[in-house]
Design brief:
The structure is a single chain. The protein starts with a strand and ends in an 11-residue tail after the last helix. Helix 1 (about 10-20) crosses helix 2. About 40% of the residues lie in helices and about 20% in strands. It contains eight helices and ten strands. The longest helix has 17 residues, at about 35-50. It is α/β, with parallel strands linked by helices. The structure holds NADP nicotinamide-adenine-dinucleotide phosphate (NAP). One of its GO terms (molecular function) is coenzyme F420 binding. This is NADPH-dependent F420 reductase. Keywords: Oxidoreductase. One of its GO terms (biological process) is copper ion import.
Length: about 220
């Protein structure tokens, strides 16, 4: 499976690239190809030091769309509209949203767009793509800590059963992640809102990399 990450140079994008590239072809995308190249070199170095296999290439965000079966949007949610305007060819693709719009005051507050969630906005902007919300609640630091297993629950929701199934398989291919079918994309606001909750817990309870495991 070829997975491309738009905004793959960020903390979460690089973390996902480190884990996913061990058993999938992964493209790190950026607005600036040289930035993708630098992120790729960092990931390759970390993987080589540990003697882990990888299949990883840098490209532009448009290169991600052109070459990937699954496209991950890993950018700040407020930049969604502007980013999509610059891209062509997303029709028919499975598109993952892991974006969690939030604002920080004296605590972190979920701040969804008018559509109800970042994933619902993405689906509205891309009516011919199959949007799946997934990987929303895993901290970047844990993706990047290759010496530790990733043992979180991953809530997955979508209005497209085939795309949801594909993404659930992708989830299960990573370390000890457990995928859970959370239903249609209308459920995505609840999934996105978990992230400000766990960040507040981490901050006020003085914990690090808090995530969720449902059982
Ligand atoms: N950090 C976490 O622990 C975490 C966990 C779960 C979900 N998330 C979600 O994942 C997404 C990415 O998080 P992150 O922490 O990796 O974010 P980030 O580092 O702030 O941004 C990720 C990438 O987005 C691109 N970007 C930044 N500003 C942009 C703009 N104006 N237009 C287009 N692209 C822009 C940049 O890539 P280029 O400059 O290379 O184009 C940047 O490296 C967010 O929506 C967040 O809610 C984060």
């Amino acid at each position: 499976m070829k997975v491309g990450i738009i905004g793959g140079t960020g903390g979460i994008g690089q973390g996902m690239a480190l884990r996913l590239s061990q058993n999938h072809s992964v493209l790190i995308g950026s607005r600036i190809e040289e930035k993708a190249q630098a992120a790729c070199e960092l990931c390759e170095y970390a993987l080589k030091v540990l003697g882990l296999p990888f299949d990883l290439l840098p490209t532009t965000n448009q290169g991600v769309v052109d070459e990937s079966d699954i496209v991950v949007f890993s950018i700040p949610a407020e930049n969604l509209e502007q980013t999509i305007k610059g891209l062509t060819g997303l029709e028919g693709k499975t598109v993952i949203s892991l974006m969690n719009p939030m604002v920080r005051t004296d605590y972190f507050r979920y701040d969804p767009p008018a559509e109800g969630s970042a994933a619902l906005k993405l689906q509205k902007l891309l009516p011919d793509s199959k949007v799946v919300a997934a990987f929303n609640n895993i901290p970047a630091g844990k993706w990047q800590k290759l010496s530790e297993p990733l043992d979180y629950s991953v809530c997955v929701c979508s209005d497209f059963d085939d795309a949801k199934k594909t993404v659930m398989e992708l989830v299960e291919s990573v370390s000890e992640l457990k995928s859970l079918d959370a239903g249609p994309l209308a459920v995505s606001p609840y999934i996105e809102a978990i992230t400000p909750l766990v960040i507040n817990i981490a901050r006020f309870s003085k914990m690090r990399d808090v995530g969720v495991y449902f059982k």
